[in-house]
């Protein structure tokens, strides 16, 4: 099985989040996909096989299957464009049907996904207290303009917005404790965010549920975050830009375009580099 190594949401020719992409004639069994993802060691690997007029896709982290992964979808879009030419490709996931657009213009590769529908609910006081304890934050460090919430765009994430960039940079936690807690709460990641402006955010994404300390670029969480900002009436002006991975030395850039309809799909796009 050939597995491509592709960094999604790169910042020019550097950064981005590495993903594995395997385009196969027949979907492997779960144990094989789990083994390949673990051996590769990236936060996610996407497995895709032709199905009707589109593609059946499954995503595996080193330790578990996940229902949706944004950066691996972006990587898959680029791989499909290289293999089949520029276009929009329908994808059938475990729990949703979406599309990804892949384009190659000269030496530049880009891709854009349309997320599953979004939704959000306020985070319980107990959930927030547990998250603050895990990351060593105080209530006073939260930016109350963006209340803590459980957010969704194909999978569940907890959002905590912080008042300062320094608080975001100081993020640390115990991986084992984080994994056990996230799995018990049904969370794929926690998204920690800082608003530099109403349209520019810096984020970090602990992914302990998948055995990964932190992701440098997380398209699924960005889509869920953008949908939540729409839900609360944040002045997004139709889009947000997200810088992620800076504190890991893997600076990545994501753009989320936000239509006005509550719950509707978010378009998340970025550049791609082959590894």
Report on the structure:
With 275 residues, the chain is α+β, with helices and mostly antiparallel strands. It has two domains: 4-111, Diaminopimelate Epimerase, Chain A, domain 1, CATH 3.10.310; 119-274, Roll (Diaminopimelate Epimerase, Chain A, domain 1). Helices cover 24% and strands 39% of the residues. The protein has six helices and 17 strands. The protein has an eight-stranded mixed beta barrel. The radius of gyration is 17 Å and the shape is globular.
| Portion in helices | 10-25%
Number of helices: 6
Helix/strand/pairing category? alpha+beta
Going by CATH, the architecture of the largest domain would be: Roll
In whole angstroms, how far apart are the ends? 17 Å
Strand content: 35-45%
Total number of distinct structural domains: 2
Instruction: Write down the CATH class of the largest domain.
Output: Alpha Beta
**Shape verdict:** globular
- Unreliable stretches covering 5 or more consecutive residues: none
N to C succession of SSEs:
EEHEEEHEEEEHEEHHEEEHEEE
Give me the side-by-side strand order of the main sheet: 1-2-3-4-6-7-8-17
Using the CA coordinates, give the radius of gyration: 17 Å
Number of strands: 17
Instruction: Report the mean per-residue pLDDT as an integer.
Output: 96
Major sheet: size, sense and barrel closure?
8 strands, mixed, barrel
Q: What is the CATH superfamily classification of the largest domain?
A: Diaminopimelate Epimerase, Chain A, domain 1
Which fold name fills CATH's third level, the topology of the largest domain?
A: Diaminopimelate Epimerase, Chain A, domain 1
